[in-house]
User: Fold these one by one.
Assistant:
Number 1:
Amino acid sequence: MTTVTQSPHPLRALVESGNHEGIEELLHPDVQFRSPAVHTPYEGRETCLHLLGHVVEVFEDFRYVDQIDTGNRTGLVFRANVTAPDGTTKAVEGWDYLTHDEEGKITEFVVMARPLSGLIALAQAMGARLEADPVPKG
Amino acid sequence: MTTVTQSPHPLRALVESGNHEGIEELLHPDVQFRSPAVHTPYEGRETCLHLLGHVVEVFEDFRYVDQIDTGNRTGLVFRANVTAPDGTTKAVEGWDYLTHDEEGKITEFVVMARPLSGLIALAQAMGARLEADPVPKG
C-alpha cells in the first residue's frame, strides 16, 4: 500500500478552524460556483461568498470526512444535517469539487449532494434565506 | 506544475469501451451502493449491478470528464442527460465516488448529482424502471 501524505486543503483548514472570513482569499475573482440545486452557475467571488455565508448557516453538524486530490483539482467530501423551513431535519452527504489556477486560487467551486430528500431540504432552506437576502447584482 | 500520470480507472475504461458486463468483476461481493436519490444504501454486488444496468440505460450522452485519485478512493466526474417519464430532458452533472479494498475491488460506490432538476428527472426515470423491474431480494 502506498502511504499518501496529504495536506488539508486550505478551504478545509479554514472551515475546520471556524475562520470563514479567510475563504475570500482562496477564491479567484471570477470563480464560477455551481450549486447542488440550481442549474445556472453563479459568477464571481462576491456572489460565491454571499452564497457560502448562507450555506455555513444552513448546514448543521458540518464535517469534512474525506479529501481527494489530483493535479489542480480537489474533492472534499462532507456530511451535515439540514433543517427545512417546515422544521424537518434531513441528513446530507456531499462534496465540494474544486478546480484551481496556477496560483492555487479556486476558479470552479461545484457542490453536489445526496440523497434527494436532503438536497430538497437544502434547496428549500437556501431558497428561504436568499429570498430574504438576495444574491448581489454583479 | 506537477505532471500527473494517471491511468484511467477500470470502471471508466469499461464504460468508455461499452463493456458493461466487465463491471461485475470490479465490485466487492458486499459492495455498498449509495444512490444519488435514495437515503438508504443498497447492499451487495447483485443489487448494485441491477441498479447500474438501469442507470446506463437512463443516462443519455454519458461521458466521464474528470478523474481524481487519492489512496484507495477515486472520484469520476460525469455529465449526461436524463429524460423524465413526462418526456422532458434534463442535463445532469455527477460523480461516482469509489472506495476500494486492498485487491482493488470497489467496496463503496456513492453517486451524487446536480442540479436538483436533473436529479429529480433521474429519480423519476429510475423509479419507473425499478417499479417494472424491482431490485432483487438479498
Number 2:
Amino acid sequence: MTDITRIEAAAARMAGHIRRTPLLSSPFVDALAGRRVLVKAECLQHTGSFKARGGWSALSALPPEARARGVIAYSSGNHAQGVAAAARAFEAPAVIVMPADAPRLKIDNTRTLGAEVVLYDRATEDRDAIGAALAAERGLTLIRPYDEVEVIAGQGTCGLEIAEQALEAGVTQADVLTCCGGGGLTAGVALALEARAPGLRARPAEPAGFDDTARSLAAGSIQRNASLSGSICDAIVTPEPGTLTFPILQRLCGPGLVVSDDEAMRAMAVAFARLKIVLEPGGAVALAAALFRREEIEGDAVICIASGGNVDGAMFCEALARFGTGD
Amino acid sequence: MTDITRIEAAAARMAGHIRRTPLLSSPFVDALAGRRVLVKAECLQHTGSFKARGGWSALSALPPEARARGVIAYSSGNHAQGVAAAARAFEAPAVIVMPADAPRLKIDNTRTLGAEVVLYDRATEDRDAIGAALAAERGLTLIRPYDEVEVIAGQGTCGLEIAEQALEAGVTQADVLTCCGGGGLTAGVALALEARAPGLRARPAEPAGFDDTARSLAAGSIQRNASLSGSICDAIVTPEPGTLTFPILQRLCGPGLVVSDDEAMRAMAVAFARLKIVLEPGGAVALAAALFRREEIEGDAVICIASGGNVDGAMFCEALARFGTGD
C-alpha cells in the first residue's frame, strides 16, 4: 500500500535527482479564471513530465540485484522516458516496449536516454506476450505506469511539494486539479495532501469522452472508456482507473472535471502566453478545468498541476494559431 | 554605485515578491553543446522576464513620497511590464511612454498591469520631451532601463541565485552567459558573482550587428551600434553600453559572444523541445552562444540566463517550423 511514509521515503531517495518544480502564476491567468490560479509546472521536471518521479521512485526502491538485471516498461510516451532516465542514472538496463507506429521523436528520445526500445506491431503482435517473454528470459522487473505502489509514491512527492508551496503562497484551502489517466499522479498527490495539507483536495481532470475516472467516482465503481483513441490528450488516455489507484481516489478526491480537446488547446495557448511554459494537451487539462469550469470550483484559489510538455511543434503551433493568447 | 551590499538589500526587499527561478538542464542540451549546460529560466519570472527584478528594486528603493507621486519609464517591452507590475504592487501611479506602433499585445499587457500608457509618434514626436513634460507636471520619477543604480542592483539578484544554485549543482568554475542590451543584467550579475561565486564569470551574448558590448569590451571604450533596428532580438538592442554599466563590465566580464538571428531562433526551438520553456529571440541569445560557440567557451560546464519569453505566437512558431527540435 502507498501511504505518506512511503511517499516521504520516495522523496528522500529523490533528493538531488528530481527537480522541485516551481508554482507559477500570472495576473492574466487569474483574471481569465476568475480566481487565483497556482500552476505546478511539472513540464519542467526532468524528461518533461512528472513521470520522472515515479520512474525514479520505482528504480530506487528495487533491491540492487533486481535493479542490476534491469527493468521493462510498456509505454509510448512519458512513462517510457521516466523509466529510461532513472535506469540510466542507476546504470540499470531498461527495455521499453513501444508500438512501431509511435512518434519517431519519442522512440529516438527513449533510445537517447539509453533504453533498449523493442517495437511491436499493434495490429498483429501481443505487447504483453513480447514483454513477458523478455522479462522471463532476462529477469527484468516490470514497472507499471500507475498501478504500482512505488510509482504512486513517487508521483505523490509532487503533492508534498504542493503542500509546502501552497502554504508559502498563503493558500491553505483549495482544490488541486490533476491531469488524470490511470490515476497514479492523482492518487499519490491525494495521499500527500491528506497528510500534509488537509485543506487541499485533489480532483481529477480528464478529456471529454475519456472521463472514466470522473464517471467511476460518480458511480462508486470502476467504469471503462468506450474508446481508447481519438483524443489529442493521448498521454492521459487509459482504459479505466487502476485497481490500486481507484480506492485511493474514491476515499480522497472531489468530483472529476471534464474538458474538451479545444479547451485543452486553449489552455496550452494561455500557458505559452502568460506562464512561458510548454504544455502537451494531456498536460493542460487541469489548467483548462481551472480556466473553463470555474462554476464547478469553489474558493478564492485553485491549484492545478501542469503535468507534462512533451508535444511536437505542429500540435503546439496549431494551438497558438487557433487560440492566440487564449483570452 | 551598485555593489554587493546594494544587491543584497534589493534581494531582501524582493522576498516573497520576485520568483526564485529554476536552473534547468537536459541531457539533450548537454549533448548539443558538448558540455554541461545550466539554464537560468528568467522567462518564468513575473512579467515574463528578469526586468521584474529591476522594476521591483527601483520602486521599493524610492522614498515613499516620491513613490506615491509615481514613476515614468520609456519602453516598448519588458522594462515597461517590469515597472508597471512593481508600481501596481506598491499602488503607485506608473506612466509608460511607448511608440504608437508598438505591438498591440505589449500595449494591452502594460495597461492590464495598471499603467497609464502614453503613445507617441516615432516619426514626428520627441519621446524625451513628452516624458520630461509629464514628469515635471506630475512629479514622476524616471526609471531608466539599465543606467540606474537600483535597477542594476535588482538584476544582480539573479546573480545571487545563480551563485547558490550553481554550487548546489556542483558547478564552481564556469562562464555565465547573459543576454546583453544596455548591460544592466550583465553588470548586476557580474557584481553578484564577484562577491558570491568568484569562480563564475559573466560574459555578455549579443545578436550579430548589435554587438556594441562585445566591441566595446574588445576596444576598451564605449562603441555604438551602426543601426538600432533590423534584429529580431529587439528586447536587447540598445545604442551602446551604459555609462554606469560599462565600467562594471570592463572590470569583471569575459569577452563577449555574438550569435546570428537564426542561431537565436534555433536556441528557441531547443528550449521548446528540451526544456519546455518559451523564449523570445533576445532571451535566447545566451543559450544560442552556449550551443553554437562551444569553441569560444572553456570548461566542463556553462551557465546561461534565458532572460525573457515575451514573444508572439507567429515568431515562436516560425522558429519551430524552421528548426524543429533544434538538433
